Amino acid sequence: MKLPNINAALLALAISAAGLPATAAAPAQDGIPVTSMSKLRGLASADEFDQQSKQQYLQLMSEAQKKGALLPDDHPQVQRLRAIARRIVPFATRWNPDAANWKWQVNLLDAPTVNAFCMPGGRIAFYSGILTKLNLTDDEVAMVMGHEIAHALREHARAQAGKTSITSIGSRIVGAGLSAYFGVDPRIGEVGSSVLTQGLALKYSRDDEREADLVGMDLAARAGFDPRSGTVLWQKMGAQSSGAPPVFMSTHPAGKERIQRMQDALPLVLPVYARAKGLEQSRLPPYRSTPAPG
């Protein structure tokens, strides 16, 4: 199955059409500061991760196509998502230079699920439910897309695999030691180590989500999308997922926490957004979560 790629020529054309500079004339560390990625990524093969994600993505798209759930290239929402991606992708290399060689793909699945993802290598998919149920503006779509792209750019999946392998080994050692010290059945220690590993994995995942929020804001702002939309987006998410598990059992931080962190980061990204729009920050209009009347 052949899926469309967003190549460099299309990106350059889209940037020109959008009136955005091909390169942002700004200090290297404006916006959200770029930090080093986890060294634990090295415990998992990049090539292996890329090949696995490629196969999984192709399989998912192939199955969706067979079921009539892969929306066609000329669908308005597909075109909308790809236009937004064309504006964001040029700024991806700030967070991971390897992204310059990724074969970016953007597809839309016709399903009520409120979700989206970006696999390693820039393979993006949205479910139509997140667009329709949350009635997302382009700015809010960009925040979702930037967040998901950030996971791929920061190689969270590879780092998570490395962390899981280390915590699994370490917790098994701890479990065996406690079993021997207290004289309890070793199987109880194994259960304890399993719970410990799961808890640590969830913690790591929440940290990844926090980083993806901020990196996603930075990407969206550089592409000319309003980072203030993040607050509205997560308010919509919170209303949609009122039955979600408590934060300590979730891979996502609590809505109030992430909204506060995004608001705290606005002083860093609003100047970037204002520059992308060609405006002084003081002249930015208020953010609108729905199209302006008229």
Can you walk me through this structure?
It is built from 9 helices and 3 strands. It has helices at 8-18, 46-66, 76-88, 128-133, 138-153, 156-182, 186-222, 229-240, 255-277, and strands at residues 105-109, 116-119, 123-127. The protein has a 3-stranded mixed sheet, with helices on both faces. Strand 2 and strand 3 form a beta hairpin. The longest helix is centred in the C-terminal third of the chain and has 37 residues, at 186-222. The radius of gyration is 21 Å and the shape is globular. It starts with 7 loop residues before the first helix and ends in a 17-residue tail after the last helix. The relative contact order is 0.13.
State the main characteristics:
single chain, 294 residues, mainly alpha, 3 strands
Overall number of domains? 1
Strand order of the largest sheet: 1-3-2
Number of strands: 3
Spans where pLDDT lies below 50 across 5 or more residues: 7-26, 165-204, 245-250
